[in-house]
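Ticket #479: bound-state structure for magnesium ion.
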Amino acid sequence: MSRYNNIIVGVSGMEKLTWGIEGLDKLIGDAIAPGSLIAIAGHPGAGKTTLASTICYANTLRGRKCLYISFQESRNKLFRVMKRLGIDLESAEGRGFLKFINFPLALMPEEFLSEIKKIVERNEYKVIVIDSINPLLGSVEGNLAKRAILQNFLYNLPSITNGLTILLAELPVGEKSIWLGELEFVVDSMIIMRHRIEKSMLVRLMEIRKTRNTPVSVAQIPFSIAEGRGVEVWPPPIIEEVPSVKEEEKIELPCKTLSAAFKHLHRGHVIYITYPADARPWFTPMIFLGLSIKNDLKTLLISYRYASSDLAELIKRSLVKIGVEDVNELISRYFKLVGLNPFTMSIQQLLVHEVNLVKEAKPDVVIFHGVEIPFSATRTREYMPYLINQLNYLKKEQVLIIRTSSYLSEKIYRVNAGISDVVINIGLIKASHGGFSYNAYLWRRAEEPLLIDSNEVDECLSEIKGLINCLGAGQSVKH
Ligand SMILES: Nc1ncnc2c1ncn2[C@@H]1O[C@H](COP(=O)(O)OP(=O)(O)OP(=O)(O)O)[C@@H](O)[C@H]1O
Ligand SMILES: [Mg+2]
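RESOLUTION: The complex was predicted; output attached.
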Protein backbone atom coordinates (compact mmCIF):
# COMPACT_ATOMS: atom_id res chain seq x y z
CA MET A 1 0.00 0.00 0.00
CA SER A 2 1.37 3.41 -0.89
CA ARG A 3 1.84 5.91 1.91
CA TYR A 4 -0.31 8.31 -0.12
CA ASN A 5 -3.42 6.15 0.33
CA ASN A 6 -4.31 7.79 3.62
CA ILE A 7 -4.61 11.24 2.12
CA ILE A 8 -8.08 12.49 1.40
CA VAL A 9 -8.43 13.63 -2.18
CA GLY A 10 -9.39 17.21 -2.95
CA VAL A 11 -9.80 18.65 0.52
CA SER A 12 -9.86 22.35 1.36
CA GLY A 13 -8.24 24.60 -1.25
CA MET A 14 -6.81 26.69 1.58
CA GLU A 15 -4.55 23.91 2.79
CA LYS A 16 -0.81 24.63 2.81
CA LEU A 17 1.35 23.34 0.01
CA THR A 18 3.18 20.16 0.90
CA TRP A 19 6.47 18.52 0.03
CA GLY A 20 4.60 15.21 0.13
CA ILE A 21 7.26 14.05 2.59
CA GLU A 22 6.50 14.33 6.29
CA GLY A 23 10.06 15.07 7.39
CA LEU A 24 10.50 17.92 4.91
CA ASP A 25 7.13 19.45 5.80
CA LYS A 26 8.27 19.58 9.41
CA LEU A 27 11.74 20.83 8.69
CA ILE A 28 11.32 23.25 5.80
CA GLY A 29 7.55 23.43 5.26
CA ASP A 30 7.59 27.18 4.76
CA ALA A 31 10.15 26.97 1.97
CA ILE A 32 7.34 26.04 -0.39
CA ALA A 33 4.84 28.68 0.73
CA PRO A 34 2.74 30.04 -2.17
CA GLY A 35 4.79 32.48 -4.21
CA SER A 36 8.09 30.63 -3.80
CA LEU A 37 10.63 29.75 -6.44
CA ILE A 38 12.78 26.77 -5.52
CA ALA A 39 15.59 24.95 -7.27
CA ILE A 40 16.37 21.26 -6.97
CA ALA A 41 19.81 20.56 -8.38
CA GLY A 42 21.78 17.35 -8.67
CA HIS A 43 23.76 14.93 -10.78
CA PRO A 44 21.95 12.48 -13.09
CA GLY A 45 20.00 9.90 -11.09
CA ALA A 46 20.16 11.97 -7.90
CA GLY A 47 16.37 11.97 -7.59
CA LYS A 48 15.34 15.44 -8.86
CA THR A 49 12.50 14.20 -11.04
CA THR A 50 11.30 11.90 -8.26
CA LEU A 51 11.26 14.67 -5.65
CA ALA A 52 9.53 17.11 -8.01
CA SER A 53 6.94 14.46 -8.96
CA THR A 54 6.35 13.76 -5.27
CA ILE A 55 5.64 17.43 -4.53
CA CYS A 56 3.46 17.72 -7.62
CA TYR A 57 1.46 14.56 -6.90
CA ALA A 58 1.01 15.15 -3.16
CA ASN A 59 -0.45 18.58 -3.88
CA THR A 60 -2.85 17.23 -6.49
CA LEU A 61 -4.15 14.94 -3.72
CA ARG A 62 -4.88 18.09 -1.73
CA GLY A 63 -6.85 19.62 -4.58
CA ARG A 64 -4.04 21.75 -6.05
CA LYS A 65 -3.35 21.74 -9.76
CA CYS A 66 0.12 20.88 -11.00
CA LEU A 67 1.77 21.65 -14.31
CA TYR A 68 4.74 19.39 -15.13
CA ILE A 69 6.90 20.62 -17.99
CA SER A 70 9.51 18.21 -19.23
CA PHE A 71 12.12 18.62 -21.92
CA GLN A 72 13.42 15.11 -21.55
CA GLU A 73 11.14 12.39 -20.41
CA SER A 74 8.08 11.18 -22.23
CA ARG A 75 4.80 11.19 -20.35
CA ASN A 76 4.50 7.40 -20.48
CA LYS A 77 7.98 6.70 -19.20
CA LEU A 78 7.76 9.20 -16.37
CA PHE A 79 4.33 7.96 -15.31
CA ARG A 80 5.47 4.32 -15.41
CA VAL A 81 8.63 4.90 -13.34
CA MET A 82 6.84 7.08 -10.77
CA LYS A 83 3.95 4.64 -10.42
CA ARG A 84 6.38 1.99 -9.16
CA LEU A 85 7.43 4.45 -6.46
CA GLY A 86 3.81 4.96 -5.37
CA ILE A 87 3.39 8.27 -7.23
CA ASP A 88 0.30 7.85 -9.38
CA LEU A 89 0.60 10.72 -11.85
CA GLU A 90 -1.87 9.05 -14.23
CA SER A 91 -4.69 9.17 -11.72
CA ALA A 92 -3.88 12.81 -10.93
CA GLU A 93 -4.09 13.56 -14.65
CA GLY A 94 -7.33 11.59 -14.94
CA ARG A 95 -8.89 13.69 -12.18
CA GLY A 96 -7.87 16.85 -14.04
CA PHE A 97 -5.31 17.98 -11.47
CA LEU A 98 -2.16 17.31 -13.46
CA LYS A 99 -1.11 18.61 -16.84
CA PHE A 100 2.00 17.09 -18.32
CA ILE A 101 3.66 18.87 -21.25
CA ASN A 102 6.65 17.63 -23.15
CA PHE A 103 8.38 20.51 -24.93
CA PRO A 104 10.69 19.92 -27.86
CA LEU A 105 14.29 20.81 -27.07
CA ALA A 106 14.61 22.85 -30.25
CA LEU A 107 12.17 25.49 -29.07
CA MET A 108 13.77 28.90 -28.56
CA PRO A 109 13.52 30.30 -25.04
CA GLU A 110 11.26 33.16 -26.15
CA GLU A 111 8.76 30.74 -27.71
CA PHE A 112 8.86 28.51 -24.67
CA LEU A 113 8.45 31.33 -22.22
CA SER A 114 5.51 32.91 -24.04
CA GLU A 115 3.89 29.49 -24.40
CA ILE A 116 4.22 28.86 -20.66
CA LYS A 117 2.94 32.30 -19.82
CA LYS A 118 -0.22 31.65 -21.86
CA ILE A 119 -0.85 28.29 -20.21
CA VAL A 120 -0.23 29.64 -16.73
CA GLU A 121 -2.46 32.68 -17.21
CA ARG A 122 -5.36 30.51 -18.37
CA ASN A 123 -5.16 28.02 -15.50
CA GLU A 124 -4.72 27.93 -11.79
CA TYR A 125 -1.60 25.89 -11.37
CA LYS A 126 -0.40 25.96 -7.78
CA VAL A 127 2.66 23.85 -8.53
CA ILE A 128 4.74 24.24 -11.67
CA VAL A 129 7.70 21.97 -12.35
CA ILE A 130 10.27 22.70 -15.06
CA ASP A 131 12.31 19.55 -15.65
CA SER A 132 14.86 20.85 -16.32
CA ILE A 133 16.07 24.40 -16.89
CA ASN A 134 19.33 23.22 -18.49
CA PRO A 135 18.07 23.22 -22.09
CA LEU A 136 16.50 26.61 -21.51
CA LEU A 137 19.59 28.22 -20.05
CA GLY A 138 21.90 26.29 -22.35
CA SER A 139 20.29 27.83 -25.41
CA VAL A 140 21.50 31.33 -24.57
CA GLU A 141 25.10 32.53 -24.45
CA GLY A 142 26.64 34.11 -21.40
CA ASN A 143 25.73 34.45 -17.76
CA LEU A 144 23.92 37.73 -18.27
CA ALA A 145 21.47 36.21 -20.73
CA LYS A 146 20.92 33.26 -18.43
CA ARG A 147 20.31 35.51 -15.50
CA ALA A 148 17.83 37.50 -17.61
CA ILE A 149 15.74 34.37 -18.22
CA LEU A 150 15.88 33.48 -14.57
CA GLN A 151 15.25 36.96 -13.27
CA ASN A 152 12.78 38.33 -15.82
CA PHE A 153 10.64 35.32 -16.34
CA LEU A 154 11.13 32.40 -14.01
CA TYR A 155 11.43 34.61 -10.96
CA ASN A 156 8.02 36.11 -11.73
CA LEU A 157 6.19 32.85 -12.38
CA PRO A 158 5.30 32.17 -8.72
CA SER A 159 3.77 35.60 -8.32
CA ILE A 160 1.62 35.14 -11.47
CA THR A 161 0.24 31.87 -10.08
CA ASN A 162 0.60 32.63 -6.38
CA GLY A 163 1.86 29.09 -6.24
CA LEU A 164 5.13 27.23 -6.17
CA THR A 165 7.57 26.98 -9.07
CA ILE A 166 10.17 24.23 -8.97
CA LEU A 167 13.18 24.46 -11.26
CA LEU A 168 15.19 21.30 -11.70
CA ALA A 169 18.85 21.77 -12.57
CA GLU A 170 21.18 19.07 -13.80
CA LEU A 171 24.71 19.27 -12.51
CA PRO A 172 27.24 17.77 -14.87
CA VAL A 173 29.20 14.91 -13.24
CA GLY A 174 32.67 15.90 -12.09
CA GLU A 175 32.31 19.55 -13.05
CA LYS A 176 31.14 22.55 -11.18
CA SER A 177 28.26 24.17 -12.95
CA ILE A 178 29.16 27.66 -14.00
CA TRP A 179 25.64 29.01 -13.62
CA LEU A 180 24.66 27.35 -10.34
CA GLY A 181 25.60 30.55 -8.51
CA GLU A 182 23.26 32.56 -10.78
CA LEU A 183 20.46 30.14 -9.99
CA GLU A 184 21.12 30.18 -6.26
CA PHE A 185 21.03 33.95 -6.33
CA VAL A 186 17.57 34.09 -7.92
CA VAL A 187 15.66 31.31 -6.16
CA ASP A 188 14.13 31.48 -2.68
CA SER A 189 15.32 28.03 -1.67
CA MET A 190 17.74 25.57 -3.10
CA ILE A 191 18.25 21.88 -2.50
CA ILE A 192 21.15 19.93 -3.90
CA MET A 193 20.61 16.19 -4.16
CA ARG A 194 23.67 13.99 -3.95
CA HIS A 195 24.53 10.34 -3.81
CA ARG A 196 27.65 8.44 -2.89
CA ILE A 197 28.71 4.93 -1.95
CA GLU A 198 29.25 4.16 1.74
CA LYS A 199 29.77 0.64 3.17
CA SER A 200 29.08 -0.60 -0.41
CA MET A 201 25.66 1.02 -0.20
CA LEU A 202 24.10 3.90 -2.04
CA VAL A 203 23.74 6.85 0.30
CA ARG A 204 21.52 9.71 -0.79
CA LEU A 205 21.76 13.15 0.78
CA MET A 206 19.76 16.34 0.36
CA GLU A 207 21.78 19.42 1.05
CA ILE A 208 19.62 22.36 2.02
CA ARG A 209 21.70 25.18 0.61
CA LYS A 210 19.39 28.09 1.06
CA THR A 211 15.92 28.69 2.45
CA ARG A 212 14.62 32.22 2.31
CA ASN A 213 11.41 31.68 4.26
CA THR A 214 12.46 29.32 6.96
CA PRO A 215 15.45 28.80 9.26
CA VAL A 216 17.36 25.58 8.65
CA SER A 217 18.83 23.60 11.50
CA VAL A 218 20.03 20.60 9.51
CA ALA A 219 22.12 21.17 6.44
CA GLN A 220 22.26 17.60 5.15
CA ILE A 221 19.41 15.15 5.29
CA PRO A 222 19.81 11.51 4.31
CA PHE A 223 16.97 10.20 2.16
CA SER A 224 15.99 7.06 0.32
CA ILE A 225 14.06 6.19 -2.83
CA ALA A 226 12.28 2.85 -2.65
CA GLU A 227 9.74 0.86 -4.59
CA GLY A 228 6.21 1.66 -3.43
CA ARG A 229 7.47 4.23 -0.91
CA GLY A 230 9.05 6.92 -3.07
CA VAL A 231 11.21 9.49 -1.33
CA GLU A 232 11.62 9.21 2.44
CA VAL A 233 13.88 11.50 4.44
CA TRP A 234 15.79 10.49 7.56
CA PRO A 235 16.48 13.71 9.43
CA PRO A 236 18.70 13.10 12.43
CA PRO A 237 17.35 14.08 15.84
CA ILE A 238 19.09 17.37 16.59
CA ILE A 239 19.22 18.73 20.09
CA GLU A 240 21.34 21.82 20.33
CA GLU A 241 22.05 21.73 24.04
CA VAL A 242 23.57 18.63 25.53
CA PRO A 243 20.78 17.44 27.85
CA SER A 244 21.69 17.14 31.50
CA VAL A 245 21.36 13.92 33.42
CA LYS A 246 18.48 14.13 35.90
CA GLU A 247 19.92 13.20 39.27
CA GLU A 248 16.68 12.67 41.23
CA GLU A 249 15.91 9.13 40.18
CA LYS A 250 18.56 6.61 41.17
CA ILE A 251 19.06 3.35 39.35
CA GLU A 252 20.52 0.81 41.75
CA LEU A 253 23.21 -1.63 40.65
CA PRO A 254 22.38 -5.33 40.96
CA CYS A 255 25.38 -6.26 43.18
CA LYS A 256 27.56 -4.75 45.93
CA THR A 257 30.76 -4.72 43.88
CA LEU A 258 29.13 -2.64 41.12
CA SER A 259 27.48 -0.39 43.72
CA ALA A 260 30.86 0.22 45.34
CA ALA A 261 32.34 1.29 42.01
CA PHE A 262 29.42 3.27 40.55
CA LYS A 263 27.25 4.08 43.62
CA HIS A 264 24.16 4.26 41.43
CA LEU A 265 23.24 5.24 37.88
CA HIS A 266 20.82 7.74 36.40
CA ARG A 267 18.60 7.77 33.37
CA GLY A 268 20.55 9.37 30.53
CA HIS A 269 23.87 7.78 31.52
CA VAL A 270 25.86 6.06 28.80
CA ILE A 271 27.45 2.78 29.89
CA TYR A 272 30.08 1.13 27.75
CA ILE A 273 30.77 -2.57 28.33
CA THR A 274 33.60 -4.21 26.43
CA TYR A 275 35.04 -7.73 26.53
CA PRO A 276 37.54 -9.91 24.64
CA ALA A 277 36.27 -10.67 21.11
CA ASP A 278 37.31 -14.31 21.37
CA ALA A 279 36.06 -14.94 24.92
CA ARG A 280 32.79 -13.09 25.14
CA PRO A 281 31.47 -13.58 28.68
CA TRP A 282 28.30 -15.62 29.05
CA PHE A 283 27.06 -13.54 31.99
CA THR A 284 26.45 -10.07 30.50
CA PRO A 285 22.72 -10.83 29.98
CA MET A 286 22.55 -11.54 33.71
CA ILE A 287 23.82 -8.07 34.55
CA PHE A 288 21.18 -6.55 32.25
CA LEU A 289 18.42 -8.67 33.75
CA GLY A 290 19.65 -7.96 37.30
CA LEU A 291 19.49 -4.23 36.57
CA SER A 292 15.99 -4.58 35.10
CA ILE A 293 14.68 -6.64 38.03
CA LYS A 294 16.23 -4.51 40.75
CA ASN A 295 14.76 -1.29 39.34
CA ASP A 296 11.75 -2.66 37.43
CA LEU A 297 12.98 -1.36 34.08
CA LYS A 298 11.87 -2.29 30.58
CA THR A 299 14.84 -2.93 28.29
CA LEU A 300 15.05 -2.67 24.51
CA LEU A 301 17.98 -4.76 23.29
CA ILE A 302 19.12 -3.98 19.75
CA SER A 303 21.76 -6.41 18.54
CA TYR A 304 23.95 -5.87 15.50
CA ARG A 305 25.20 -9.43 15.86
CA TYR A 306 22.26 -11.76 16.45
CA ALA A 307 18.68 -12.26 15.30
CA SER A 308 16.06 -11.72 18.01
CA SER A 309 15.45 -15.49 18.33
CA ASP A 310 19.20 -16.12 18.82
CA LEU A 311 19.34 -13.34 21.40
CA ALA A 312 16.53 -14.98 23.35
CA GLU A 313 18.44 -18.26 23.15
CA LEU A 314 21.62 -16.57 24.42
CA ILE A 315 19.85 -15.03 27.41
CA LYS A 316 18.10 -18.33 28.11
CA ARG A 317 21.39 -20.23 28.14
CA SER A 318 22.95 -17.84 30.63
CA LEU A 319 19.89 -18.10 32.90
CA VAL A 320 19.61 -21.85 32.70
CA LYS A 321 23.27 -21.97 33.70
CA ILE A 322 22.37 -20.34 37.03
CA GLY A 323 19.34 -22.57 37.53
CA VAL A 324 16.49 -20.24 36.50
CA GLU A 325 13.56 -22.19 35.10
CA ASP A 326 10.85 -19.80 34.04
CA VAL A 327 13.13 -18.17 31.51
CA ASN A 328 10.65 -17.19 28.79
CA GLU A 329 8.42 -15.38 31.23
CA LEU A 330 11.35 -13.37 32.58
CA ILE A 331 12.61 -12.47 29.13
CA SER A 332 9.25 -11.31 27.86
CA ARG A 333 8.55 -9.38 31.07
CA TYR A 334 11.74 -7.31 30.88
CA PHE A 335 13.10 -7.43 27.32
CA LYS A 336 12.15 -6.45 23.84
CA LEU A 337 14.68 -8.02 21.49
CA VAL A 338 15.53 -6.70 18.03
CA GLY A 339 18.19 -8.01 15.62
CA LEU A 340 19.31 -5.28 13.24
CA ASN A 341 21.75 -5.78 10.38
CA PRO A 342 23.58 -2.44 10.25
CA PHE A 343 24.62 -3.04 6.64
CA THR A 344 21.16 -2.80 5.15
CA MET A 345 21.16 0.97 5.49
CA SER A 346 23.47 3.95 5.69
CA ILE A 347 24.87 4.87 9.09
CA GLN A 348 22.64 7.93 9.26
CA GLN A 349 19.55 5.88 8.47
CA LEU A 350 20.59 3.25 11.00
CA LEU A 351 20.80 5.73 13.86
CA VAL A 352 17.48 7.37 12.93
CA HIS A 353 15.88 3.93 12.59
CA GLU A 354 17.06 3.05 16.11
CA VAL A 355 15.61 6.27 17.49
CA ASN A 356 12.30 5.28 15.86
CA LEU A 357 12.50 1.85 17.54
CA VAL A 358 12.99 3.59 20.90
CA LYS A 359 10.07 5.93 20.23
CA GLU A 360 7.90 2.91 19.49
CA ALA A 361 8.99 0.67 22.40
CA LYS A 362 9.39 3.47 24.98
CA PRO A 363 11.94 1.51 27.06
CA ASP A 364 13.68 2.63 30.26
CA VAL A 365 16.94 1.08 29.08
CA VAL A 366 18.27 0.63 25.56
CA ILE A 367 21.16 -1.77 24.93
CA PHE A 368 23.12 -1.61 21.70
CA HIS A 369 24.80 -4.98 21.39
CA GLY A 370 27.92 -5.30 19.21
CA VAL A 371 28.65 -1.62 18.53
CA GLU A 372 32.08 -2.59 17.20
CA ILE A 373 30.34 -3.89 14.07
CA PRO A 374 29.07 -0.57 12.64
CA PHE A 375 32.13 1.13 14.16
CA SER A 376 34.67 -1.01 12.37
CA ALA A 377 33.02 -0.41 9.00
CA THR A 378 32.61 3.36 9.23
CA ARG A 379 35.05 6.20 9.52
CA THR A 380 34.87 7.57 13.06
CA ARG A 381 34.63 11.18 11.96
CA GLU A 382 31.60 10.34 9.80
CA TYR A 383 29.93 8.16 12.42
CA MET A 384 30.52 10.41 15.42
CA PRO A 385 28.27 13.43 14.69
CA TYR A 386 25.27 11.15 14.05
CA LEU A 387 26.05 9.02 17.09
CA ILE A 388 26.36 12.03 19.41
CA ASN A 389 23.04 13.38 18.14
CA GLN A 390 21.45 10.02 18.78
CA LEU A 391 22.87 9.72 22.30
CA ASN A 392 21.77 13.25 23.14
CA TYR A 393 18.29 12.45 21.91
CA LEU A 394 18.14 9.30 24.05
CA LYS A 395 19.50 11.21 27.04
CA LYS A 396 16.78 13.79 26.61
CA GLU A 397 14.22 10.98 26.51
CA GLN A 398 15.65 9.83 29.88
CA VAL A 399 16.69 6.44 28.61
CA LEU A 400 19.60 4.61 30.25
CA ILE A 401 21.96 3.74 27.40
CA ILE A 402 24.14 0.61 27.45
CA ARG A 403 26.53 -0.03 24.56
CA THR A 404 28.38 -3.34 24.45
CA SER A 405 31.23 -4.33 22.21
CA SER A 406 33.95 -6.86 21.61
CA TYR A 407 37.39 -5.36 22.15
CA LEU A 408 38.64 -4.91 18.57
CA SER A 409 41.17 -2.17 18.90
CA GLU A 410 42.47 0.31 21.39
CA LYS A 411 41.10 3.09 19.19
CA ILE A 412 37.52 1.75 19.17
CA TYR A 413 37.78 1.23 22.94
CA ARG A 414 39.03 4.75 23.63
CA VAL A 415 36.56 6.49 21.32
CA ASN A 416 33.62 4.66 22.91
CA ALA A 417 34.91 5.06 26.46
CA GLY A 418 35.37 8.76 25.73
CA ILE A 419 31.67 9.27 25.06
CA SER A 420 30.51 7.23 28.07
CA ASP A 421 29.76 8.02 31.71
CA VAL A 422 30.52 4.50 32.89
CA VAL A 423 33.05 1.99 31.53
CA ILE A 424 33.16 -1.73 32.29
CA ASN A 425 36.15 -3.36 30.63
CA ILE A 426 36.01 -7.11 31.16
CA GLY A 427 39.30 -8.96 30.78
CA LEU A 428 40.38 -12.56 30.64
CA ILE A 429 42.97 -13.80 33.17
CA LYS A 430 44.64 -17.07 33.97
CA ALA A 431 42.96 -18.56 37.04
CA SER A 432 44.91 -20.16 39.91
CA HIS A 433 43.24 -23.52 39.16
CA GLY A 434 44.71 -23.44 35.68
CA GLY A 435 41.77 -22.34 33.55
CA PHE A 436 40.64 -18.81 32.75
CA SER A 437 38.39 -16.41 34.55
CA TYR A 438 37.25 -12.82 34.15
CA ASN A 439 38.30 -9.64 35.92
CA ALA A 440 37.01 -6.15 35.22
CA TYR A 441 38.12 -2.53 35.13
CA LEU A 442 35.30 -0.26 36.34
CA TRP A 443 35.10 3.51 36.03
CA ARG A 444 32.34 6.03 36.53
CA ARG A 445 32.56 9.74 35.76
CA ALA A 446 33.72 11.66 38.87
CA GLU A 447 34.81 8.48 40.72
CA GLU A 448 38.12 6.65 41.12
CA PRO A 449 38.58 3.71 38.73
CA LEU A 450 38.43 0.27 40.29
CA LEU A 451 39.92 -3.03 39.23
CA ILE A 452 38.02 -6.07 40.45
CA ASP A 453 39.38 -9.60 40.44
CA SER A 454 37.68 -12.80 39.41
CA ASN A 455 36.45 -13.52 42.97
CA GLU A 456 34.63 -10.20 43.06
CA VAL A 457 33.17 -10.89 39.60
CA ASP A 458 31.93 -14.26 40.88
CA GLU A 459 30.50 -12.71 44.04
CA CYS A 460 28.63 -10.16 41.96
CA LEU A 461 27.22 -12.86 39.71
CA SER A 462 26.09 -14.94 42.63
CA GLU A 463 24.29 -11.91 44.10
CA ILE A 464 22.54 -11.32 40.76
CA LYS A 465 21.69 -15.01 40.62
CA GLY A 466 20.00 -14.65 44.01
CA LEU A 467 18.09 -11.65 42.75
CA ILE A 468 16.86 -13.46 39.64
CA ASN A 469 16.02 -16.67 41.48
CA CYS A 470 14.21 -14.72 44.15
CA LEU A 471 12.02 -13.17 41.49
CA GLY A 472 11.65 -16.53 39.75
CA ALA A 473 10.35 -17.92 43.05
CA GLY A 474 7.68 -15.23 43.01
CA GLN A 475 9.04 -13.16 45.91
CA SER A 476 8.84 -9.43 45.75
CA VAL A 477 11.92 -7.39 45.01
CA LYS A 478 12.51 -3.89 46.35
CA HIS A 479 12.26 -1.30 43.58
N1 LIG B 1 11.38 1.50 -8.50
C1 LIG B 1 12.45 2.06 -7.94
N2 LIG B 1 12.95 1.60 -6.77
C2 LIG B 1 14.02 2.14 -6.21
N3 LIG B 1 14.70 3.16 -6.74
C3 LIG B 1 14.27 3.66 -7.90
C4 LIG B 1 13.13 3.14 -8.56
N4 LIG B 1 12.94 3.86 -9.67
C5 LIG B 1 13.92 4.77 -9.72
N5 LIG B 1 14.72 4.66 -8.66
C6 LIG B 1 15.92 5.44 -8.35
O1 LIG B 1 15.61 6.80 -8.44
C7 LIG B 1 16.69 7.47 -9.05
C8 LIG B 1 16.19 8.23 -10.26
O2 LIG B 1 15.80 9.39 -9.82
P1 LIG B 1 15.41 10.53 -10.82
O3 LIG B 1 15.07 10.06 -12.19
O4 LIG B 1 14.40 11.29 -10.08
O5 LIG B 1 16.81 11.30 -10.91
P2 LIG B 1 17.14 12.66 -11.63
O6 LIG B 1 17.97 13.42 -10.67
O7 LIG B 1 15.91 13.27 -12.13
O8 LIG B 1 18.05 12.14 -12.80
P3 LIG B 1 18.29 12.79 -14.24
O9 LIG B 1 19.24 13.93 -14.04
O10 LIG B 1 18.94 11.67 -14.97
O11 LIG B 1 16.98 13.19 -14.78
C9 LIG B 1 17.66 6.50 -9.59
O12 LIG B 1 18.85 6.60 -8.85
C10 LIG B 1 17.00 5.19 -9.38
O13 LIG B 1 17.94 4.30 -8.84
MG1 LIG C 1 15.22 13.71 -14.10
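RESOLUTION NOTES: The two ends are 45 Å apart (CA to CA).
TICKET STATUS: resolved
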